[in-house]
């Protein structure tokens, strides 16, 4: 809906804006349009003005960082702060009034975190730039810890702590990368304990700051160097115990992400058993102390040798035992009569043959004897049936020429020859009449 | 010549002994079985002796 009464007023405003913009363009962009050349360069003041205008375009921002340096110049109310990014090698100069600092961060010291409301400012006098802060708040420890808790949740949700993403440590690493403070107790603990366990262990040590504003970028660089080294099979991040603030770099988001991004397995060994910086959750293995890291990274040589010789002994005993058992089985098979006394195989059969032969012999003997007896009986019977006894009593047997016994006169005719058998011999006779 | 494993030889030997003990074979068969049995027993023994020798050799080089 358009309200006619409003129209002229709005036009007037628009016109005024356009006019103002034109005026501003004329003042600021004319030199750009003109283009500088070697023959017609811009004077310093013009360039300085241009830079100042560009920088001012950012406007007011809220910025957070770590105070690396504070300089309160005596006699002036201006305070200079070097504000550093805790995760990167970047810093900005912040200027503010002493009153602003006293109001928001009265006990401000180097290393503390602040949040500042500031606007970029260009100083044409020296060609320098800084952030001009009109409000500064110190970030307290409680708030820092609360933020860590928040970061922890964020990283956990992103999966940086996932057990499934953790890599196994090599059983015996080729070279171990070690990131730690120069000549620190942590460095000595890791090196000494690892060498004691495995004398041939190899290290590539990169010394970095382990606290303060430069720690995180230096450690991230060291991680990159070691991760890129193909000889390095595992990386240890070690630091001795310290205050909560000293250990803050090891909960830094950029460092956590760098550890997560490493292709080489990473062991964190920060502080004491009770210290649990966020890096402990991201690392593939969390060691409670630097000494513990040494224990986890290499096996104990003496222990391994003992295990090997133990295994060897068991191996030999097992094989010897089996050979002995098999020998017993073989001996048992061989001592079975069928194998131990093969002669029995023949002897048994020889005995069978002998027995059969004797049986045959005996059987034949019986039969011969029986036959003999039978013969005698037969002869006796034969003898009993003989006509000789009758003949001896005086009887005669008359036979015709054919040998047939003549029993009736009709059996013969006159003139037939007859044989007359007597007891003592025979007679030849002739039939003379019937 | 056939190359029998220890287990093959042992199993066959057990079978031969069983057959011989059961009896019933002809003399010719029995003789052949016995010869086979002796051969199998010596194959087994060779395996065991070889295993023992290898074990001893491995142990003595330690």
Automatic annotation (TrEMBL), chain B:
Subcellular location field: Cytoplasm
Catalytic activity annotation: Exonucleolytic cleavage in either 5'- to 3'- or 3'- to 5'-direction to yield nucleoside 5'-phosphates
Keyword entries, A-Z: Cytoplasm, Exonuclease, Hydrolase, Nuclease
Xref: Pfam families: Exonuc_VII_S
EC number: 3.1.11.6
Keyword Glycoprotein: no
Record's signal peptide: none
InterPro entries for this protein: Exonuc_VII_S (IPR003761), Exonuc_VII_ssu_sf (IPR037004)
NCBIfam families reported for this sequence: PRK00977.1-3 (NF002139), xseB (TIGR01280)
Role played: Bidirectionally degrades single-stranded DNA into large acid-insoluble oligonucleotides, which are then degraded further into small acid-soluble oligonucleotides.
Family, similarity comment: Belongs to the XseB family.
Quaternary state and interactors: Heterooligomer composed of large and small subunits.
Protein name (Swiss-Prot/TrEMBL): Exodeoxyribonuclease 7 small subunit
């Amino acid at each position: 809906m358009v309200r006619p009464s409003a129209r002229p007023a709005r036009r007037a405003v628009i016109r005024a804006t356009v006019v103002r913009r034109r005026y501003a363009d004329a003042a600021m962009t004319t030199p750009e349009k003109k283009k500088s050349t070697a023959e017609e360069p811009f004077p310093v003041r013009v360039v300085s003005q241009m830079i100042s205008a560009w920088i001012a375009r950012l406007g007011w921002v809220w910025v957070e960082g770590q105070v690396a340096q504070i300089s309160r110049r005596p006699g002036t109310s201006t305070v200079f702060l070097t504000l550093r990014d805790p995760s990167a090698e970047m810093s900005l100069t912040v200027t503010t009034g002493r009153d602003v600092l006293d109001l928001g961060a009265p006990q401000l010291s180097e290393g503390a975190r602040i949040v500042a409301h500031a606007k970029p400012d260009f100083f044409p006098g020296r060609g320098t730039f800084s952030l001009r802060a009109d409000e500064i708040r110190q970030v307290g420890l409680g708030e820092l810890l609360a933020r860590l808790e928040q970061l922890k949740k964020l990283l956990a949700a992103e999966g940086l702590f996932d057990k499934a993403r953790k890599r196994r440590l090599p059983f015996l690493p080729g070279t171990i990368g070690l990131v730690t403070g120069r000549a620190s107790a942590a460095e000595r603990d890791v090196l000494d304990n690892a060498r004691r366990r495995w004398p041939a262990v190899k290290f590539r040590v990169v010394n970095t700051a382990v606290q303060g504003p430069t720690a995180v970028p230096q450690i991230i660089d060291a991680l990159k160097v070691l991760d890129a080294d193909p000889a390095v099979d595992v990386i240890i991040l070690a630091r001795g115990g310290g205050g909560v603030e000293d250990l803050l770099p090891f909960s830094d988001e950029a460092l956590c992400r760098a550890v997560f991004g490493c292709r080489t397995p990473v062991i964190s060994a920060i502080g004491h058993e009770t210290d649990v910086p966020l890096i402990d959750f991201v690392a593939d293995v969390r060691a409670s102390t630097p000494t513990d890291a040494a224990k986890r990274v290499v096996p104990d040589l003496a222990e391994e040798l003992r295990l090997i010789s133990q295994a060897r002994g068991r191996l030999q005993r097992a094989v010897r035992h089996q050979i002995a058992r098999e020998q017993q089985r073989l001996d048992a098979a061989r001592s079975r009569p069928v194998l131990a006394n093969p002669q029995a195989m023949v002897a048994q059969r020889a005995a069978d043959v002998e027995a059969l032969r004797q049986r045959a012999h005996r059987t034949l003997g019986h039969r011969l004897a029986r036959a003999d007896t039978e013969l005698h009986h037969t002869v006796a019977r034969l003898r009993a049936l003989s006509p000789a006894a009758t003949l001896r009593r005086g009887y005669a047997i008359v036979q015709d020429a054919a040998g047939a016994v003549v029993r009736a006169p009709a059996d013969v005719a006159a003139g037939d020859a007859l044989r007359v058998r007597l007891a003592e011999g025979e007679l030849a006779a002739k039939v003379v009449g019937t | 010549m056939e190359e029998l494993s220890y287990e093959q030889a042992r199993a066959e030997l057990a079978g031969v002994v069983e057959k011989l003990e059961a009896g019933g074979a002809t003399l010719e068969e029995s003789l052949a079985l016995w010869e086979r049995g002796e051969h199998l027993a010596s194959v087994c023994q060779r395996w065991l002796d070889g295993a023992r020798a290898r074990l001893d050799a491995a142990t003595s080089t330690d």
